[in-house]
Amino acid sequence: MKEIAISTEYIELGKFLKLSDCISTGGQAKFFLQENVIHINGELDNRRGKKLYPGDKVEVEGCGIFVVTRT
Questions:
Q1: Dist CA 16 CA 7 (whole Å)
Q2: What is the mean pLDDT of the chain?
Q3: Model confidence pLDDT, tens digit, residues 16-40
Q4: Per the CATH hierarchy, to which homologous superfamily does domain 2-70 belong?
Q5: C-alpha–C-alpha distance, residues 16 and 32, integer Å
Q6: What is the helix, strand, coil percentage profile of the chain, to 5?
Q7: Separation of alpha carbons 39 and 18, rounded Å
Q8: What is the pTM of this model?
Q9: What is d(CA 70, CA 51) in angstroms, rounded to the nearest whole number?
Q10: Dihedral sign, CA of 22, 20, 3, 60?
Q11: b/e per residue, 8-25, with b = 16+ CB within 10 A?
């Protein structure tokens, strides 16, 4: 499980995907979310604007399992 540290209160899923190196540009988020399965805290979710908070667990098919932490 990889830790993704944020310095803000939350991070949106689209930005998280870029920060976790699942996508290379923010513009790819919409298409990536349409084609890949993502579970947030065990629940299926593909909303690009979904807010992720420290402690959230994100499972990205083909990319890995991540946990959001605070810096």
A1: 12
A2: 96
A3: 999 999 999 989 999 999 999 999 9
A4: RNA-binding S4 domain (3.10.290.10)
A5: 12
A6: 25, 35, 40
A7: 16
A8: 0.93
A9: 14
A10: negative
A11: eeebebbbbbbebebbee
